């Protein structure tokens, strides 16, 4: 039975469970449950603190887990990134009061507050910067105005927390994070490959829609240049002489622009439908 770690609370928890449900797995119904067995898929889910998940997977005590890239790096775990799950996107950055420092090099000799000491120490060592890292549990943006630190290093999503604390980002992002499926590359197995394929199916279904339209056969080349699909578009004859029906997957983010262009070209009966799931 495959054993998988799922975040039990916080930002990652709800979207992780939602994605697993969409991939056909049973999930807990009570937020306080710590384990959920999905007998029909031969999988057992363990609900754990997101920060601990890389440790369980890295040690091999659990086969797979869902966690953030920043949390994986912070844990210094030997677990591998198997799939980017495309939610909980954020960057991890330094920030300070605007007048105090403007470049990463100026962090040398300063105090850096963070709840991700693993990420920060690694970055500082890699860039030859010596600074004092102060580990805090959270709300680190307060550390500057309270005099505990000169710089913070934390997750930035909208930037609202930094602005409220009167801080400005310093330098480029230390890393770009999102939710990941992690595991041990060395223990690739058929059940793991199947779970990865199921999650890939959910990702594709979220990113793409199915576009169908009718177009004059002499415009087919121009139309399919706009909708090349993933492999190749499906083209079927129409009862109406000289016209064909085309079906192709297109990126959800591009669909409106493509529909406008198809309409301008002369395509009609342009229909968009959602994809529930797929195996490509
Ligand atoms: N606005 C956000 N706040 C916090 N974490 C975020 C945000 N957006 C994305 N993330 C990502 O979510 C993960 C952190 O989730 P986690 O559940 O550990 O913390 P949390 O949601 O801040 O909960 P808490 O701080 O209450 O423990 C990280 O990978 C982080 O990059
Ligand atoms: O850029 P924003 O959209 O403002 O989001 C980022 C903020 O959200 C998180 O804090 P959280 O609410 O998790 O509190 P914590 O610091 O106690 O973890 C994170 O640590 C930042 O402080
Ligand atoms: Mg937090």
UniProtKB/TrEMBL annotation:
One GO cellular component term noted in the UniProt record for this chain: cytoplasm
Intracellular or extracellular location(s): Cytoplasm
Protein keywords: Amino-acid biosynthesis, ATP-binding, Cytoplasm, Glycosyltransferase, Histidine biosynthesis, Magnesium, Metal-binding, Nucleotide-binding, Transferase
Enzyme class: transferase
Known pathway: Amino-acid biosynthesis; L-histidine biosynthesis; L-histidine from 5-phospho-alpha-D-ribose 1-diphosphate: step 1/9
Catalytic reaction equation(s): 1-(5-phospho-beta-D-ribosyl)-ATP + diphosphate = 5-phospho-alpha-D-ribose 1-diphosphate + ATP
Protein name, per record: ATP phosphoribosyltransferase
